[in-house]
Amino acid sequence: MALRIDILTLFPEMFEGPGPLSSSMIGRARAAGQVDIRIRNIRDWTHDRHRVADDTPYGGGAGMVMKPEPLVEAIETVRREGGAGNSRSKVVYLTPAGELFNQAVARRFAQLDHLILICGHYEGIDERVRDLAIDEEVSIGDYVLTGGELPAMVVTDAVVRLLPGVLGNPDSARQESFMDHILDYPVYTRPEEFRGVRVPAVLLSGHHAQIQRWRRKMALKRTAERRPDLLERAALTPEDRLLLDEIRKEKAAG
Ligand code: 6GU
């Protein structure tokens, strides 16, 4: 059974037209039936003439709060549609107050049958929705966005590319998980010289083992410079430690 993703939003137009969820790898995965992505308008679960989905906060203060009734009814409906009881499903609220999204969370979501993403707006959702209908809260980083729509696209992209058969190379997602804690090595393509800058000679040498060693060394160097926090969590081999020693010596030598 293909993963189903429902995205509940007050702004479905943000997902309309040829966008990130209709293009490239995600677009192809949808066309091939590897994932079933549905954009749902929360306003469709309001019952008043003006389709009001928000209201002022009790206790006063700035901004508006998303009302509980339409949101909880929307979640109940889509959970039922997805086969609720007999499928692995999760209701995830996208909020800057959530836990940080990362590759491990993406891998966990990729195991589900049904992922329901709730896009927050304004000052947030009524707390009772959290208590009654939300399984997890997720943030995509330490900055504030106007709403959960872009985060929903980010989460969807990260999850769908992990689904079996979606990546061109069936092995590359697995290989990548092994490499998770190390940044990518630099890559080059033709021409051999561009604006006076040459491609590193080792890459033209045809010496496979040397090329592998150079790539690993550059990846470790980048990670040490930019993300020392990742390096601490990485599973380093004895060869990696030798390469890191080399990098440190080269740095000390200037
Ligand atoms: Cl999930 N929502 C909003 N509004 N801002 C964010 C975020 C989510 N993650 C990072 N910033």
Tell me the CATH superfamily of the largest domain: SPOUT methyltransferase, trefoil knot domain
**Ligand identities:** 6-chloroguanine
Secondary-structure element string: EHEEEHEHEHEHHEEHHHH
Query: CATH class of the largest domain, please?
Result: Alpha Beta
Overall 3D form = elongated
Q: How can the largest sheet be summarized?
A: 5 strands, parallel
What is the name of the CATH architecture of the largest domain?
A: 3-Layer(aba) Sandwich
Q: Order of strands in the sheet with the most strands?
A: 2-1-6-5-7
Q: Remind me, CATH topology of the largest domain? A: Alpha/beta knot
The helix/strand class is alpha/beta
Mean pLDDT: 94
C-alpha end-to-end distance: 56 Å
Q: Low-confidence segments, ≥5 residues, pLDDT <50?
A: none
The value of Rg in angstroms is 23 Å
- Strand elements, count: 9
Strand content: 15-25%
As for the number of domains, it is 2
Q: Helix segment count?
A: 10
Helical content (DSSP H or I, runs of 4+): 25-40%
Provide a descriptive summary of the structure in words.
This protein is α/β, with parallel strands linked by helices. It has 2 domains: about 5-160, SPOUT methyltransferase, trefoil knot domain (Alpha/beta knot, 3-Layer(aba) Sandwich); about 175-254, tRNA(m1g37)methyltransferase, domain 2 (Trp Operon Repressor, Chain A), CATH 1.10.1270.20. Helices cover about 40% and strands about 15% of the residues. It has helices spanning about 25-30, 70-80, 105-110, 125-135, 150-160, 170-180, 200-205, 210-225, 230-235, 240-254, and strands at about 5-10, 35-40, 55, 65, 90-100, 115-120, 135-140, 195, 195-200. Helix 3 links the parallel strand 5 and strand 6. Helix 2 (about 70-80) runs parallel beside helix 4 (about 125-135) and helix 8 crosses helix 10. The model has no long low-confidence stretch (mean pLDDT about 95). The structure holds 6-chloroguanine. 6-chloroguanine binds near residues 145, 148 and 151.
